[in-house]
Structure formats: C-alpha cells, structure tokens
Amino acid sequence: MKRMRKPALLLVLCSVLPGVALAATVPVTVDLDLDRRALSPDIFGVSGWPNFQQVAYPLVRWGGNSTTRYNWQADVHNTAGDWFFMNIPDGNGTPAASSFEAGIAAALAADANPLVTLTTIGYIAKPVQQKRWGFSQIKYGPQLQDECSYFGSNPPAWCTADAGNGLCNPAQNQTPFCNASGVIVNNDPLDTSDLATAQTMRNWVGHLQQTFGSAANGGVRNYALDNEPMLWNSTHRDVHPQPLTYDEIWQRTVDYASAVKAQDPAAQVFGPVTWGYCDLFGSAADNCVDGSDRQAHGGKPFVKWYLGKVCEYQAQNGVRLVDVLDLHYYPQGQGVVDFSDPPNGSETATVSARRLRSLKELYDANWESESWIADLGNDATWHYSRPNLIPRVRAWIDEECPGTRLAITEYNWGADNGASSALAQAEALAIFAREGVDAAARWVMPDSGSLVERAFRLYLDYDGQGSRVQGFSTRAISSDVDALGAYAVHAPGQRVMILLFNKATTATTATIDLGTSLAGPWKLYRFSGTSDLAQVASGNINGSTIAVSNMPARSANLLVLPDSDLIFADGFEP
Is 213 left (phi over 0), alpha (psi -120 to 50) or beta? Predict the structure, then answer.
C-alpha cells in the first residue's frame, strides 16, 4: 500500500544566523504505510485527581500503597509501610462525601477513564474515624523509629509516639515479637484492619454501579487487582508478612476478578499489577528472577505463566478474568528516578544522559541496562540484563493469551521540574504509542505548570486549543537515536505529525523524508527546559521532504503537517 510521491522539495524551517555554527544533521525516514498501530489515548494517563480544565488527562488512576486497604464505606485508608502502617480517616465517614467519589465524578464528567484499585489482600482499614497503627510500641516493644522520632528533636503536636515502624533492636526489645533479624513478627492484623473478601469488593463495585452507572453505561469501567502484591510482605507486612507465591496470587485473581465480572460483566480487569522488573520473572517467594517457586511452575517467568492461566481459565469457564496485563516499571539507573522538587542532583550531565539512554529499556532488545539489572546476566533464553520491556511482554501475550491488552500503570523518568525528565517523559509517551501500549499512568501526576506537565500538553493540547496527537502510530526511523528520537503519527484525513526529541546537548537539524508528497500549511511546536510549549514556526510544504533546523538542545518538537490527499493503493485505511 505505497503512496505516490512527487519530486522532493526541501523546506528549511528555521534559518541559521550569521556566525552560528551549523547544527549536526540527523536524517529521518518516515513511512506512513508501515508499522501502523492505533494510538490509544489512555497512554496519556496519570495517577491522581487532576484539574481537567487545565490538562484533560484521558485516564486517571486511583492507586498506590495507600489504596490497598481502603475502606470505601467508612472512607478510611491505611498508609502501609509508607507511613507507620497507619489508618487515616479521609472525610466524614461516608462514601458520598469522600474525595474518592468526588474524583470519580470529576473524571467521568470530563470523559476520562478512571482506573480503580480494588483490595485483594484480604483486609480493609477498620471503619473508625481515628488514627490506628500496626506496630504499637506499648504492645510490641520499642522500635527503631516512631511517628514522632521521625521528625527529630522537635516533632509536631499531632504525631503519635506509640506508632512504631515495625523494626527493632533485639538487644533493646526483648519481647517475643522482636526476632533476631530485627523485625516485629506475630503482630495482630486486626489492630488496624478487618477481614475483607471478594464479596466485599463485589459490594463496592455494585455501589459504584448504583452511583455512577455500569461499565457499559458510562460508569467506572476499569478495576485493578490491588497494588504491587509481590511487595506485600514489605509494604503491608503488618497484615501479610509472608511472600506471595504464584499460586496465591492466581487464587486471589480467580476469587476477586470473578466477583467483579459477576457484578459488572462489562468491567475491564487489570492484573496482576507487578511492582517492577523482578516480578516479571519470579514471585516474592523467589530471589528476583528465579527461585524455587518459579521452578515449581515449570520454570516459566511469572507474568508469562500468569497470562497462560488467564486464557486457560477462559477456555475452561468461558470468562476472561483479566483483560489488561498491568505492569509497573521504574528505570533503575542511578539518579534516573527522582521524586524531589526541585531535582536533587539528578539533572547533572551524567545523570541526564543516563536517563535519556534508559528509555531504550522499553524497546531495544540489544540494550543492556545501566543498573543492577545488568548484574542478572544475559541469560541465553531470557536475556535478563536486557529489559526490552514492551516487546518482551507483548511476545508473552501473543504466546500465552492473545488479545490481552497491555498497561504500564506506574512509571517515572525523573523529577517534575527536570529538563531531561520532561524530555524523557515526552519520548516515553511516543514509545508507548509506537510499541502498542494500551494504557499508562505516570506516578504521580506532574505538578501544575511543571516541565513534565509540558510533556503531556505536547500530546493533549499542543496549540492551546485542545488539539491532540491522535490517530495511528507509523514508522519513523532516526539515523541516530541517541541524538534524536523520531516518531510519526497519522490522523487520516486530518494531519501527519512528526515528533522529534533532540537529546543532544547542542542544536540538531532533522532532514525528514516523508515517503509521500504533502501540500499545504505546516506548524512547528516546541518546549524545552527553558521555554514553554508554543508554536515556534509555520509555513507551507509542497513535496516529500522537509527539514527542521537548529532544534535547541534537549528540546521536544512536534511538526504538524497536512495529510496527503492521496489514498492508499487499495482504497482502504488499515
């Protein structure tokens, strides 16, 4: 299905000033007919409740450690290991007054898709409108830190000195609760939590149906099977101290996903919600990528095995328990992920370059991680040291459970106000589109007005008038991906969009062979660490080649071109 092309006409978008050295030139080749893949708008999602009037994120995830034991009837959550395993009342104790339901209502009103985390851990926070904590020092003995000592010599009046962190010194805590490893054991989960079952979650889904409508009628459509269960023995060790196994997580999937599907058959279930790289391959009972639990299940990597169970269950029972494979992924290179604001040393030349290179972990089968992942070795079968994340798991889907969609519902490539973080975020979204990710949510939603927010606006409102990058991802090849990332999106009958990410520390020129002749006006949009997202150039094209000259260092560029009036050779769009 090749398009016709007219003789090439090179257009230079930005002139070179006298006395300024010519920028390095990177050729880019585009083919609108090849590698066409529908771009899912849900890849532009975030975790948190946004102001949709400011940025219209199409997917919003309500998740994280504090959602695992959320009591929807009392509006109480547990902070887990993030903050002393503490129950915190969120409102006046009713669902209707909760920030959760307010967030759902706002998302649905903005035509966004909420992704709701359901508990599968078997416990929810007690329905009491007061703080409670998992490791009382009075009950379990002195611990290494408590909520007050955390603040040093001048703690706030509201802190609770009895709320320990569950770690102890056996020389100082000689109760039977402090083991030789310095961990509080055999505590009572009921100090903070009540038992919860799959029926508890079915009741919640039913309540959301009554409040907002069913999944098929404009209500909540997406439900995740808890949050990072392979870390429960750490993050929620006050109620689940034992490492989760293949069999346990599958049984919980059967119990809870069945309950969701029985209550709302059109609901989309996300699972198993992995925490990172290790539990792609092994369970919490294994040693990262391998161990006795994996070997007891035929040596299959956990996610590959899990996918097989999903389709096996469907074949036997006629019910698809998990619709979307849900993964979390954080690059592990030193300094790449930085949640501080302003960035805490993560915008040095070394870290910035490492951050941008680490994007290859998402798609490059030959790229070896610049982190501890490399120490896992380049196994001849599984190539552990080379993540190749998206193609790897898409191949597992094709092999084990075709038709399963793919989501990355937690990821982060740096601080909100880091220049290289914003550039990495922008390119990560382009990679998600090209590689066929169906949904994604950054952890967390970027601060209003931040550099990383610019990366999302590049796709969701590049002209300030609500225009979006949408359509089909198509082939675009940069001759030097380390200097310039290049991606193409085709909106048939509307426009052709070329995304160019200058990762070099100097200006770069892209010469683009479009592979087909275009005629009409073009516009160029750009942001960088020093300039907000704005239109920076415009003109007309009449030919099949175009150049974007002197793109500033570390800048994200969106070239919006007219669509060709030519049709595909067979007369049909793919």
Answer: left
Nearest to 41, CA basis, from 433, 498, 499:
433
Q: Which residue bears the tokens 């415009």? A: 538
| Token pair 């299905």 in the structure block, residue | 1
- 3-class DSSP assignment, residue 206: helix
C-alpha span between 503 and 416 (Å, rounded)? 18
| pTM for this model (two decimals) | 0.95
Structure confidence by residue, pLDDT tens digits, 165-186: 999 999 999 999 999 999 999 9
Q: Rounded distance, CA 518 to CA 425, Å?
A: 30
Range in 10-14, 200-204, 501-505, 544-548 with the lowest mean pLDDT: 10-14
Position 4 pLDDT exceeds 90: no
3-state secondary structure of 216: helix
Q: Please tell me the distance from the alpha carbon of residue 293 to that of residue 245, in angstroms, as a whole number.
A: 7
Angle in degrees, CA 433, 107, 86, rounded to 5: 100
What are the chain's domains?
24-37+469-562 (2.60.40.1180), 57-133+191-421 (3.20.20.80), 135-186 (no CATH)
